[in-house]
Design brief:
The chain is mostly helical and about 290 residues long. It has 10 helices and 5 strands; from the N terminus they run αααααββαβααββαα. Strand 1 and strand 2 form a beta hairpin. Helix 7 packs antiparallel against helix 8 and helix 7 packs antiparallel against helix 10.
Length: about 290
Amino acid sequence: MTPPAIDATRFARIRARLEAAQPTHGAPAALYEFALFVFKQGWACLFGALMLVLLLATHLWYPAGAPLARYDALVIGAALIQAGMLAFRLETHDEAWVILAFHVVGTVMEFFKTAHGSWIYPEPSLLRVGGVPLFSGFMYAAVGSYIARVWRIFAFRFTYYPARWMTVALAAGIYANFFTHHWVYDLRWLLFAVTAVLFRRCRVHFTPWRAERSMPLLVGWFLVASFIWFAENLGTFARAWVYPAQRDGWALVSPEKLGAWYLLMIISFVLVSLIRNPTHGPRESC
């Protein structure tokens, strides 16, 4: 096991102590590995978890009539979270550029989707462009942050990963379909089929503790997309944004959105893969 560097962050030191624990076999070892897996997943979700806390806390307790609009407070809070992630070396600068790219990709789609009534941001604010408050891009950045961090924390590597140009072409097709389906046939089922064909044999290998584990990448993506869909339900409960079916009161987000998040997550995954070698997983140092 590689020891943390001298200047390793506090999390790296905590992780090293946890990984040095003594359970070696049987149920105690299995339970400990599962607990360590959950801890690391939670740490990888830090950006998104803090964003959800901001959304819920401001929904429940933000004072009515405050000089600063709630949405503007969310923009400032999100920017501080992102700055903290970099200052405490929880993200690398290379990852930050990729996350910024996904932030921009998501914000451009927000402009288009809100203009076409797919969802709305019902509260007033100053820090917005058109109908889109600027905190919205940070919600997409949270997805990119999770993928970048979980890739490092679990030392991802992949077998039977498709050629990079194929994955980039798939991501471009997915992104284009989010726009073009408003005018021409929705190709999402074709995109699902292409994804299944490209990644049908691909497995992601990850190391929660001492032993390397693996699962089909398609299954891993579904699990992550399901978690994002659950988080989106919390976000709409906090009225950070509202779908047409929720204008008269909160309702469960349509399960169809799970498929949309599955596809959007592939875009984020491909962006992160541009700075990571999909066949090798460097050990996380923060």
